[in-house]
TrEMBL record, chains A, B:
<dbReference type="GO" id="GO:0016891">
    <property type="term" value="F:RNA endonuclease activity producing 5'-phosphomonoesters, hydrolytic mechanism"/>
</dbReference>
<dbReference type="InterPro" id="IPR001736">
    <property type="entry name" value="PLipase_D/transphosphatidylase"/>
</dbReference>
<protein>
    <recommendedName>
        <fullName>Mitochondrial cardiolipin hydrolase</fullName>
    </recommendedName>
</protein>
<keyword id="KW-0443">Lipid metabolism</keyword>
<keyword id="KW-0442">Lipid degradation</keyword>
<dbReference type="InterPro" id="IPR025202">
    <property type="entry name" value="PLD-like_dom"/>
</dbReference>
<dbReference type="InterPro" id="IPR051406">
    <property type="entry name" value="PLD_domain"/>
</dbReference>
<feature type="domain" description="PLD phosphodiesterase">
    <location>
        <begin position="112"/>
        <end position="139"/>
    </location>
</feature>
<dbReference type="GO" id="GO:0016042">
    <property type="term" value="P:lipid catabolic process"/>
</dbReference>
<keyword id="KW-0378">Hydrolase</keyword>
<comment type="similarity">
    <text>Belongs to the phospholipase D family. MitoPLD/Zucchini subfamily.</text>
</comment>
<dbReference type="Pfam" id="PF13091">
    <property type="entry name" value="PLDc_2"/>
</dbReference>
Length: 231, 231
C-alpha cells in the first residue's frame, strides 16, 4: 500500500518513537544536537532563554526565520546588553523579540530587577527543550548543564501556555515596538561602550601622551557622531 | 481484603498517579510545593544546584538529614561563597557536600572558571525536580522560572546517573574532605568579610573620628581572633 494510505499505515503500525532524551554538558556533541533540534523547525519556534551568546545557535534561529519559520524570542533585558549577546543581531535579522519589562517590585528594601531566567524552546509546537542550559559558549564548553528534549504532550502544553502568557504580558508592557527599541538600545549601548573605552584609554595615558590619545579618539568618535547628527 | 494483600490490590487496581507537573515562578505557592517535595524525602535526597540561598529550602534539607535521610549536595564553588549562601550552614548541619573542582580549561585565551550550573534534585530515587530554578529567594519571588516535577523513570535514571558520575569526579578531585574544607573556607571568608567591612568603615571615617572607629573595630575583631587562636 503506497501513497497516503501507506504513510498512515506506517504511522499507525510503526509509530515514530517520541523524542525523549537528556543532553548533558560540557559536550560539543550535545550542543550540535541542540542546534539540530532548533534547525529542524519547519513551522514555529518559540524561544524563552535568559542568555543567548552562542553565535551558532543564533545562526540557526536566523536561518529558521529566513526560511519562513515563525520565530519568536523572549529574553532578559539585562543579558541582552552583554558584550557577546546575539539578541540584537537576531532582532535585526527578523526574529520577533521581546525582553522582560523589568518592573521593580518594591519589597521594603531597594527595588531589585526581575530576571527572565527561563531556558527553554518549543520546536513546531511539538518538541520541548528545557533545562539549566543557556545558549552560551561557556555553557556548552565548560559548565555542567542539562537539557531535556521531550515530546511529552503535557509538558509541551504547559511550557507553550507559559510562553503565550509571557508574550502577552511583555508585549503589553512595551511602550513601543520592542524590536525597534531593542535595536535602538543596542546602538546607544555601542556608543556608550566606545565612550567608556576612550575614557579608560585617556586615563591610562594621561601623564605621558595625552595629545596623541585625544587625536586617535577623535578619529574613532567622529563617524558615529556624524551618523547621529544625520539621524 | 486488608493487610499487605489489600495494599498490593489497591496499588494494582487504583495506582497512584505518577507525579507530573510544572512549577512556574514567580510564585510562593510553587516555592511551597518545591519545599514539600524536598520535605517528602524518606530515604535519599540528591541535590545538584548552582545557587542555594533560600533559607527555607536549606531548612528542608537540614531537617531531612536530621531525620536520617541520606542527603548529598553538589553545588558551585563560587556561589557557595556568596553572601546569602546556605551551603556551609547545611554542610555544618551534616549534609554531605561537594563543590566543583573548578579546574581551568586552557583554551588559548585566559582560563575561565567552570560552573556547576545544574538545578535539579532527586527525591527517594523516584521524583526528579529540574529546570531553570535556583534555590534562591529572588528566583521564587521575582524571576520567571520553571521546574519540572516528574516520576518519568527514563529522566530520573538519566539525572541519577549524572549525579553519581559528578559525585565521583568531584570527590576524586578533592584533596581533603570537602565538608571539612567547606566549613574551613566559610570561616576564612567570614573573617575576610569582617576585615573588608572594617577597612571600608575606616576609610569613610578617616578624616573625622579615626580613633573611635579603631576602638569599635577592635571590639568586633577580638572574639573571632580569640577563637582562631584556640582552634
Amino acid at each position: 500500500a503506497g501513497g497516503l494510505v501507506g504513510v498512515v499505515e506506517e504511522e499507525l503500525l510503526q509509530p515514530r518513537p517520541l523524542a525523549h532524551e537528556v543532553l548533558l554538558f560540557p559536550s560539543d556533541e550535545a550542543r550540535q544536537k541542540l542546534c539540530s533540534w532548533i534547525g529542524s523547525a519547519t513551522t514555529t519556534l518559540e524561544c524563552c532563554v535568559f542568555v543567548i551568546s552562542d553565535a551558532r545557535v543564533a545562526a540557526e534561529l536566523k536561518e529558521a526565520a529566513a526560511r519562513g519559520v515563525a520565530v519568536r524570542l523572549i529574553t532578559d533585558d539585562k543579558t541582552a546588553l552583554d558584550g557577546g549577546s546575539q539578541v540584537f543581531g537576531m532582532a535585526s535579522a527578523g526574529v520577533e523579540t521581546l525582553v522582560d519589562p523589568d518592573y521593580e517590585l518594591k519589597s521594603g528594601a531597594a527595588p531589585v530587577p526581575r530576571h527572565m531566567h527561563h531556558k527553554y524552546a518549543i520546536v513546531d509546537g511539538r518538541v520541548l527543550l528545557c533545562g539549566s542550559y543557556n545558549w552560551s559558549y561557556s555553557a556548552s564548553a565548560r559548565n555542567n548543564e542539562n537539557c531535556v528534549v521531550t515530546e511529552d504532550v503535557y509538558l509541551v502544553a504547559k511550557y507553550s501556555a507559559e510562553f503565550e502568557r509571557l508574550w502577552r504580558e511583555f508585549k503589553a508592557a512595551a511602550p513601543l515596538s520592542q524590536q525597534q527599541a531593542a535595536i535602538r538600545i543596542q546602538q546607544i549601548e555601542r556608543g556608550n561602550r566606545e565612550r567608556r573605552r576612550f575614557a579608560a584609554m585617556a586615563r591610562s595615558h594621561r601623564a605621558a601622551n595625552v595629545f596623541d590619545v585625544a587625536r586617535s579618539a577623535m578619529d574613532i568618535a567622529s563617524p558615529g557622531n556624524r551618523k547621529r547628527g544625520r539621524g
